Amino acid sequence: AILLDQQYPDQPEVLVMTDHALWYSSDAGESWENLHNDLDFSEGLTAALAPHGFSLENPLVLGLTNGNILTI
Q: Which end of the chain is more exposed for a tag (fewer CB within 10 A), N or C?
């Protein structure tokens, strides 16, 4: 799953979720930082929401295909 900042490209922040990690880029994908590598998205994502932006202190809400909601 890929999330772009709601002000992209003026604010070029990007979040990418792989099966087990969450990656962040503040420069439109030129460089990446691994924020979490202990996550399990292998069942699949149905939704992702960063209601207050991508800052680490802000929540990221994820809907999983098994019906669970994960907040990180």
A: C
Beta pairing partners, 23: 16, 34
Longest dimension (CA), the chain: 35
Residue 24: what residue type?
A: Y
Taking the whole predicted model, whether its pTM rises above 0.85 is answered as: no
User: Across-strand partners of 24?
Assistant: 15, 33
pLDDT one-digit tens code per residue, 3-49:
898 889 999 999 888 877 888 999 999 999 988 777 777 778 888 88
- 22 three-state secondary structure: strand
